[in-house]
Amino acid sequence: MGRDRHSNAVLIIGLGRFGGTLAESLQRQGQHVVAVDENRELVQEWSGTLTHVVEADATNEAALRQLGADGFERAVVAIGTGIEASLLATGVLLDLGVTEVWAKAITRQHGRILERIGASHVVYPERDAGERVAHLLSGRLTDFV
Ligand code: ATP
C-alpha cells in the first residue's frame, strides 16, 4: 500500500475502552479509521461497528508494514496496561515513518518514556477524566456554599 493512500486516515492500535471509543467517535465524525488489535474476539466484536479492523500484533514491525502502517501520517497507540507493548508499538510506528504518533500513558513515568522515544503527544485519559470530574464537582459544590 502506498504512502498517499492513508495520508488522511488515522491508525488506532488497541481496541480497549479508550481505543474503541476513540475509533468509533472518529469514524462517526467522518474520519477514515483503521483499527488494530491482537485480540481476535475483540476484532470480531468491533468489525460490526468499524469499517476497517485488523487482527495483528502491533509490536511486530513486519505485521504493521503488511497492513500499510507506513502509509499513515497519524496513529494512536491506545495500549495502557501493557506498558511494554505500548512502548514497542510506538517505537515501531516511529521507525515506519508515521509522523504523528499519539500515545496513551497510565503513569507519569510511562508518559516520560513515550516522550523520550519520540511520541508527539502523550495523553493520560484517567488523569484527565479525574481532573474534569473534580472541576465539574467543585462547580456544583460552590452552588451550595
Ligand atoms: P483500556 O483502554 O480498556 O483502559 P488498557 O489501558 O487497560 O485499555 P490494554 O488492555 O493494555 O490497555 O490494551 C488495550 C488494547 O490493546 C487491548 O484490547 C489489547 O488486546 C490491545 N493490545 C495490547 N497489546 C497489543 C499488541 N501488541 N498488538 C495489538 N493490540 C494489542
TrEMBL record:
One of its GO biological process terms is:
potassium ion transport
- GO molecular function per UniProt: monoatomic cation transmembrane transporter activity
Stretches assigned to the RCK N-terminal domain:
7-123
**Source taxon at top rank:** Bacteria
**The protein's name:** Potassium transporter
Report the source organism.
Parafrankia colletiae
Q: Which residues of the full protein are shown?
A: 1 to 145 of 226
